[in-house]
Amino acid sequence: xxxxxxxxxxxxxxxxxxxxxxxxxxxxxxxxxxxxxxxxxxxxxxxxxxxxxxxxxxxxxxxxxxxxxxxxxxxxxxxxxxxxxxxxxxxxxxxxxxxxxxxxxxxxxxxxxxxxxxxxx
Length: 121
Description:
The chain is of the alpha+beta class. It has a single domain (2-119), classed as CATH 2.40.50.1020. The protein has two helices and ten strands. It has helices spanning 51-57, 102-119, and strands at residues 2-7, 10-15, 19-25, 28-34, 42-47, 63-67, 70-73, 77-81, 86-89, 94-96.
């Protein structure tokens, strides 16, 4: 699935599978991208939209709002550090989880992994 993103310098079309996470930055949103076939494996660009607007454009099963300032692509989930209230993504990015969403985040991650594993059979 592709999504149209309005950036500071124009418009960008991006595969949702390439979006690692999104982080609120005031009235803007930093969108972190992963491209396997390019030399620059990790980079981000800035969208003029609020994080809540970006969240509405991304597919729900794959993207999860784990904190008021962070939205993650569950496809890039690597580790849940319960002691630090952090989700660690495959590229090493650490995303803080709000205390209120700790249990929900754990349930959501488990459900996503079970769904992914059952689709691989």
